Amino acid sequence: MNKNYNKINLKILNELVEFRTSAAIILSVILGSLYSNFNYGGFKINLFLAMLLASIALDGASTVFNNYFDYKKAKNTNGYLYNIHNPIVHYNLNPFTVFLIGLSFIGFSALLGLYILISTSPILLIIGGISIITAYVYSGGPYPISYTPFGELVSGIFEGTIVFSISFFIQSQQFSVSTLILSLPVAFSISNIMLTNNICDVNEDEKDGRKTLPSLIGADNAFKVLICSHLFELILITIFIFNNLVPKTFIILYFFVPVMVGNIKKFNSMKSKAKGFIFILRNTLFFNLLQVIAFMASLILASL
Prior knowledge:
By secondary structure, this protein is mainly α. The protein is built from 14 helices and no strands.
């Protein structure tokens, strides 16, 4: 490869970090904070902003490392994941510089995490440390998680449950099993993004030696898992409404069901990264955004 590496400008940095994919983790932070406010009241804007920026940085680091190790480990160098999607190849970037960018994002996230734990509880040091390690080993190390059938599970737990639960805890200083249960719709919705991604990439993943869930059970069976995951999200929201864990305004999510089903059908007809992936991404973002809107509507109605 030509060693005349291109300089990294803002446009290339955006493609390297893929800030647009941070929308899911941003909504996870917002929802954790709003669920805490609904159940315990209060809202600490300083901790919310610190958690938001720390989560975005850690998510960005994970994406950078994913691009870096995809470049380093690629066996198939003529596919979408390598010479089209990977910005290191597409823009002829210095791999070491890219690696340093990933480390800098982790460092920024760690500093914000330190501020959060000083302001709340030292127990977050353990959780935050595990999260930082996971952001790296998800793609890096001798046995990257993204090369196993557990990618969907780990992404759902960390970007969904853990981010949601920390956001909940730093606002209320409360944590229980019910907090984990409240995080599940967000966790399922985020894991759907990774599952969809792996369904789209199943052929190239097999060539690169990845043993993702779709690679093991087949794309058709993985699609059935995707359908079940969407169903579980709706079942959980229904349980929350009937048990007064969320405001009654959450019924607006039911109006999204026809759109959700339509997006699933559109994805099934394409199952491609370029054209089909966006439909499930929309499901995740709109499903979680509607929860935010439902909370806002509840606050407005309560003030009338």
